[in-house]
């Protein structure tokens, strides 16, 4: 097959490309220039898509003996990922930019271009497994639970999964690094990227304040309605947050308070005890079905609300176009704007059966 290997400059995508070459595919490497300021250098594990990363990807491609190109997707990334991220926070929601990037950049813009150029598949370094059952693709959790990225791939459609390759799905991170070292790849010990790639200093609140300005409001006790302090904007908070609240008045029982909800119109941030974070039902919009079929009636599943962790047994159904997820147990700190991803337990690795964007919780 003709395979386009997306090469970020990190160890995972490097080994994925190397495995595609070893499997006998006709591989071409491509690095996506996503940063509006590509001259910015990486600092340890923060930042990505820099000139340094492009150089690392090119050196790996040279060692593998494959053609290599840099494609400028910065404008598309800014519009579809960065601006969406800012708008979601301004609306009192907490988006997952990695999920948005996979959906709109790597498996929409990139895959569309790859197919138009005659490639059969796009290969990435994601930790997830793909299988074909009765002619339909199934997206599964990876063998490395700690690195599993099926959650941030859950919005992909069947037609996109049919053109995807995830060579690392059956591997654990330690083995991937060891393989990179054995192959002599210079990125074998390169630190993984953490936090949000377009906020390299890790200060999300400061980034959003620069983009949105200050929007003063009140911190309110959710139970009594008492005003407990002031803040510079709801975009500085997320549901479940405990630290950095700036409360003037301690709780009567001395226990910590958490962010319970955000009201962007009034500017209120409502806070309360941990027990008030408990969620038993999730309503999500824009449901997607990677296997292609919307389940009929209620389906038993495991619901996940964060990229790593935040899982509970559940039953799910579609009502009036919305995904309704009723948790058998309970979850805490479920933030609107995040994704709820549904899994079917399977001996060969849990299968992603659906996902949706969380609109509200009960």
Walkthrough of the structure:
With 362 residues, the protein is of the alpha/beta class. The chain has 3 domains: 2-125 and 167-182, 3-Layer(aba) Sandwich (Rossmann fold), CATH 3.40.50; 214-272, SH3 type barrels; 278-361, Elongation Factor Tu (Ef-tu), domain 3 (Beta Barrel). Helices cover 24% and strands 30% of the residues. The protein contains 7 helices and 17 strands. It has a 6-stranded antiparallel beta barrel with strand order 12-15-14-13-16-17. The protein is globular. The protein starts with a strand and ends with a strand. 45% of the residues are buried. The mean pLDDT is 92.
Keywords:
single chain, 362 residues, alpha/beta, Rossmann fold, SH3 type barrels, Elongation Factor Tu (Ef-tu), domain 3, 3 domains, six-stranded antiparallel beta barrel, five-stranded parallel sheet, 7 helices, 17 strands, globular, ATP-binding, RNA-binding, disulfide bond
């Amino acid at each position: 097959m003709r395979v386009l290997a997306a090469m970020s400059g990190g160890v995972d995508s490097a080994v994925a490309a190397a495995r595609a070459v070893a499997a006998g595919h006709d591989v071409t490497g491509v690095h996506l220039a996503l940063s509006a300021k590509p001259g910015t250098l990486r600092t340890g594990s923060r930042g990505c898509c820099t000139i340094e990363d492009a150089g690392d990807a090119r050196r790996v491609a040279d060692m593998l003996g494959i053609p290599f190109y840099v494609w400028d997707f910065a404008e598309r990334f800014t519009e579809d990922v960065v601006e969406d991220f800012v708008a979601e926070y301004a609306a009192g929601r907490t988006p997952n930019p990695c999920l948005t990037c996979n959906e709109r950049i790597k498996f929409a813009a990139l895959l569309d271009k790859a197919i138009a150029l005659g490639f059969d598949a796009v290969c990435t370094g994601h930790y997830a497994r793909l299988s074909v059952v009765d002619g339909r693709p199934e997206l599964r959790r990876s063998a490395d639970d700690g690195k599993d990225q099926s959650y941030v791939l859950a919005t992909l459609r069947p037609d996109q999964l049919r053109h995807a390759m995830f060579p690392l799905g059956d591997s654990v991170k330690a083995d991937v690094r060891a393989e990179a070292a054995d192959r002599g790849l210079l990125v074998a010990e390169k630190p993984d990227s953490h936090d949000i790639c377009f906020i390299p200093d890790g200060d999300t609140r400061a980034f959003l304040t620069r983009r949105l300005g200050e929007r003063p409001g009140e911190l309110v006790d959710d139970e009594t309605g008492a005003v407990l302090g002031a803040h510079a904007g709801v975009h500085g908070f997320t549901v479940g947050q405990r630290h950095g609240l700036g409360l003037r008045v301690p709780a009567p029982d001395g226990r910590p308070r958490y962010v319970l909800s955000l009201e962007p119109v009034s500017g209120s941030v409502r806070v309360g005890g941990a027990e008030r974070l408990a969620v038993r039902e999730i309503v999500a919009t824009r449901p997607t079905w990677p296997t292609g079929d919307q389940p009929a009636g209620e389906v038993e599943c495991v619901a996940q609300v964060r990229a790593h962790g935040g899982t509970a047994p559940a039953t799910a159904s579609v009502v009036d176009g919305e995904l309704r997820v009723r948790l058998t147990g309970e979850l805490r700190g479920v933030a609107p704007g995040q994704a709820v991803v549904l899994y079917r337990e399977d001996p060969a690795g849990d299968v992603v059966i659906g996902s949706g964007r969380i609109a509200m919780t009960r």
